[in-house]
Amino acid sequence: MIIDVHCHYTLTRYVADLPQRFSFEPAPRGCPSSPDGRLRPVDFDSCVSPRALGRVSWWLVRRVLRLPEPTAGSPGDDTGGAAKAGSLDRALMRHYERHLWGPGPIERFVLLAFDAVHDDDGTCPPLPDRTDRFGSDIYTSNSFVHALCQRYPDRFLFGASVHPYRPNAPECVEEVFAAGACLLKWIPLHHNINVTDPRAVAVLRKCAALGLPLLVHCGPEFSLATQRPQYESIRPLLEILRRLRRQGAMPCVIVAHAATPLWLLGNADSHHVLLEALRGEFADAPLYADLAALTAWAKVPFLRRLRQRPELHAKLLFGSDFPVPTDARLLHRDLGRAYRRISAIRSWPQRAAAACRQLGFNEIVFYRAAELLPHVSRRG
C-alpha cells in the first residue's frame, strides 16, 4: 500500500457538528469564548490566523488556487449534510476533494491535525494578528480530522497532533492512539516546543511505548511564522533520541521535508546532520525522513540529490505536504518522455508520487509507511 504520510486539511473559520470529540477538545462555538473578546484557535475546529492570512505565502496560495478573499464565514458541518462554511472554506473543500480523491498511485493519505500553539506555562494564546508575535497561525482539531478519517476510512488515516505542554499530554496521546492515530505531528519552531523539555520527553516516551511515530519538522519553515528560531535545529532532537535509545525508549521519528532549507543556498545544517545520522549512527534505528514538499520549485535540487543517494532510500518515506503544489515543469528533463503523462495528472499529491517514482526512487520509499504506521491494516 502506498501512503502519503504528510497531508494537511485546514480551513479558515470552521466549526463542525461532530457526534464525538476527544475529551481534551471541547466543542467550539465559532465566537470568542474568553472574556477578552479575542478569538482563540479552540473557538473553531479549523482556522487560519489573521496574521497568516496576511503572509505572502497565503497570498500565493489564493492566487494559485483562485480562491476568494478570506471572510469570517459561518460555522459548518462537514460530517453530514451540506456544509455551511463561508465561501472561502467551501472553495477549499472543493479543492481538497479534487486533489485527495484524484486517481493515482497513492492509496491512503495521512490527514494531519495541527494542535494550537501553547505558552511555556501551557496556556493557549489568542489567534495572532499582524501586531502579535506569538500564537497559532493555523489550527485543525484532532476531533475534526478523526471524523473525516472515520467517514472515509478507505482513503484517509488519522494523523494526530498533541502539544506536549498541554495538561496531561501523555494521556491525550493515549486517547488519540486508542482512536486510531497513526502518527503525531509537531512543528517545534512554530508550536513552541523545546524537545528537551521534560514534558516533550514524556510524550516521546509515551509514543515509544505505544508504537506511535512522531512526524516532526526540523529546519527552516516558510508557510508559518518562525516564533522560536532556537528550536529550528535538529541537533537537540538527535541528542534526546540518543538518550532514549540507550534507555530502550526511542520512538519512531520521521523528520519532515528531510530537514531541508527553504532554498538551495539556505541554512542546510539540519539537513546535512540528518543525512549523516541516517546513514551512520541511526542507520539501524527507527529514524526516517519524508520527501514532503520536495517537488516544490525551491526544493527540487534537494530531491535530485536524494534520488542520487540510493543508500538512503530505505530511510525515506513519501509525503506530499499537500496543499503545497507540485511543479512538474522543473523536472521536465528528469522525467523525460514521462513528463507529459505526469504533468497531466490533476491531483497534486498523486502527481508528486508519480514524479518521484519516475525519478528512480526505490519502491521502499513508497511502501515503507505501511510497515511503520500503526492502525493501517484495519483500513487496508
What is the gist of this entry?
This protein has 380 residues and is of the alpha/beta class. It has 14 helices and eleven strands. Strands 1-4-6-7-8-9-10-11 form an eight-stranded parallel sheet. A three-stranded antiparallel sheet has the order 2-3-5.
What does this 3D model show about the protein?
Helix 5 (169-178) packs parallel to helix 7 (198-210). The chain has 14 helices and 11 strands. It starts with a strand and ends in an 8-residue tail after the last helix. It has 380 residues and is an alpha/beta fold. The radius of gyration is 19 Å and the shape is globular.
Q: What tags apply to this protein structure?
A:
about 375 residues, alpha/beta, TIM Barrel, eight-stranded parallel sheet, three-stranded antiparallel sheet, 14 helices, about 35% helix
Helix-strand layout with pairing:
Layout: E1 3-8, E2 13-14, E3 46-48, H1 50-53, H2 56-65, H3 87-100, E4 108-112, E5 138-140, H4 142-151, E6 156-160, H5 169-178, E7 183-186, H6 188-191, H7 198-210, E8 214-217, H8 235-246, E9 253-256, H9 269-279, E10 287-290, H10 300-307, E11 316-317, H11 332-335, H12 339-343, H13 348-359, H14 364-372
Parallel strand pairs: 1-4, 4-6, 6-7, 7-8, 8-9, 9-10, 10-11
Antiparallel strand pairs: 2-3, 3-5
Helix pairs in contact: 5-7
